[in-house]
Amino acid sequence: MSVPPTETTPEAADPGPYRRVALPVSGMGDAAAAQRLANRLRRMEGVIAVEVSPGLDAVSLTLDPARATLPEVVRELEGLEVAVIDALVPLSIRGMTSSACVVRVRHALETVEGVIEAQVNPVLNRADVRLVSTARDVEALMQAVRRVGYGVTPLGEHGAVADVESAAAYGFGAGASRVESLMLGIVGVLTVPLLANLAWRVLGEGPLFGVVWAFLLSSVVLSLGGARYVFGAWRAIRERTATMDILVVLGSASAFFYSVIAWIAMGPAGRNLYFETAAAIIAFVRLGKWLEAVVKHGTTRAIRSLMELRAKSARVIRDGALVSKPIESVAVGDVVLVKPYERIPVDGAIVRGESTVDASMITGAGLPEDKTVGDLVTGGTMNGGGTLHVEARRAAADSTLARIIALVEEAQARRVPLQRFVDRTTTMFVPVVLGIAAFTLFAWLALNAPFAEAVNAAVSVLVIACPCALGLAAPTALVAGTGAAAKAGILIRDIDSLEKAYRVDTVLFDKTGTLTEGRPFVTSVEALDGDVSRLLYLAASAQQGNEHPLGRAILEYAENYGIVPAALKSFEAIPGRGVRAALEGHTEVLIGNRPLMESAGVDMDVGEWIVPMLAMKGRSAIWVAENARLIGGLSVCDPLRVDARRAVAALQKDRIACAVVSGDADSAVAAVAEALAIKNAFCDALPETKTRIVRRLQRIGRSVAMVGDGINDAPALAQADLGIAVGSAADAALQSADITLLRTDVISVTNALAVARETWKKIRQNLALAFVYNLIALPLAALGLLSPAVAGAAMAASSISVVLNAFLLTRWKPQLPDAAPPEAPLDPCRTAFAPMQGGDKPETPC
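RE: above sequence
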């Protein structure tokens, strides 16, 4: 069925200037929902006709391009929870020199049919184009970029940075190509004598050489060093846009041609010739760009180091023989041989051998861990002294390392919200500067100043006002910060997460597996009828299908006593409560917390006498019922992570409130909270309870970060202002989180907030620095207080200062977890605390 188009108008029948768009979608719902969707779209300004086909999962629209755009329609659909099926096309862009270039490339890409959004990053020389999946035409995208005068190639699997690395060999300045380094050397050698000549003349000692030599040297410098700016300026004029290239060409050309005219008019003895100035402008601009490339290279070091961890090939064991295969050809199930001190090429499980594995290059820190048969290993980590046979569990494209690199690249390619303001400012900036330069020239002449001094001031305005620093301010800090975070095992999903982290004032911690080690152990078993063996038999049988740490703890405990579980007929995990299982012989076993038992109608009064024994000393009580009859319980303890208290103390020192939110029983949660000096704790919290707590805190104005590692935490992670998933987190938690921690220590939470705050501060500092520079420099240049040569040096210095300020982020070091437990007896497994009150309806905000 389809919902017919709007009836109507001559325009709908004859599209004329209107634009027809077909969007593949998902989540549209039934025919009634499709009708509501069509009605909502028709109310949008600029939408001429709508046809919705729920059976085909498609939406067709006729738009007035002057009043409605594709991105607006997509945002409207996403607001209605209808997802547009899209594709992401990464491109490597060459020739961008300023934020104006970024605006031009993005505008060119967004005019291509089917493009929803284009993100352009001048630091990575990369564009990520989001477009409708049915309109995936890479050639059309590249043609659009070429039309505005930039080089473009499809981005290979190794990402933007790797493509740039392989595009050219590097000279003595890593990050700048040999051609750039060689050209800078030539321009520098030719400009140094010109600057010496200028200095000698200013000091009153007379010129070192005559005007002819100054003319020849500056001509060579402008011809060789300035050619790229001339071509860039010509492209900009042809496209009717204004860029940095225009300012550089106008500034240097004005100084040069004024000097030629003055030389012809007044002869070799003429004064106020600016041949040296014209050459100095080009030399300083090129030097600034070269230094900028070198420092930008440093900001991308972290992502490049991750890329270098990827194996190119692997030795696959097939029919007893070794076959070397490209890593892309290794299939799930292939067994790979890893020799001592080699990098493990795939994500998989060890099927033979034992060794130590060093994962510090991925997680950021930590000692090598012992690994044996059955243990999981990650591709990119380093094998120790043993030989391993590893069965691949993931293809190369889906590996942990590939996902990490994709997350980091995606975050680095994003635009900072402030960047939109910068882009608008840059678009108007060059025309405004041209106007200021013209006004400066005529103002000086109106004041009866010599023409040479008027030209000097106007040229200084043109040169000093290049908006390079504005374009680099946010991307360089973003790349450096997210790269430093990735090196420490902290993955920041997107740019918005940085601002969220900057504003966080409350952190909610899940308990099990987050504040605790996630390796609980059974401390005691209490059976109401005294038959402990049967209770263990039923509990272990029911836990066979459970991957939860508590389930594994029960199975290990039963195994130590030689108990063989019964066959499992069915299994159901009940989030935040426990499990329900059916065994052979029509036996139904229920294992979990008290709310689970009460909801199932189990009489808990008969077990009150064992509560003190199960819940003593901060331990968790797990109840067991057979066929809706309580038969006893187990006492389980999960030790605190050794660095938990230091991490919480660090957060509290930064005036960030902390709380524990757990589905565990009151005594266990209260024990952890008191051990960590946390005043607020909530127990027996179901997933919806955790979400409700987050919402309550948000309503009173708190900015909340939720830290968790399980499926139970996913709703709260999504609801929180900032969701942080720890390293062993379930996929649902990872997908809901804004920040993912590859390490499981609690200090990584402190590190994540710290690096995100530092990155956001650097972005703001850089933007402020760039704006303040222009506010101060332009008046100084217009008043004639800066010569064109000094203006060129100052302009280069502004870009370099912004990039260097961002580069400082690469030196950020995370706090390392404690190697040993603190001296104070903080382990809740060994310390008794008073039980907490409140159940799953907490009233005390953090």
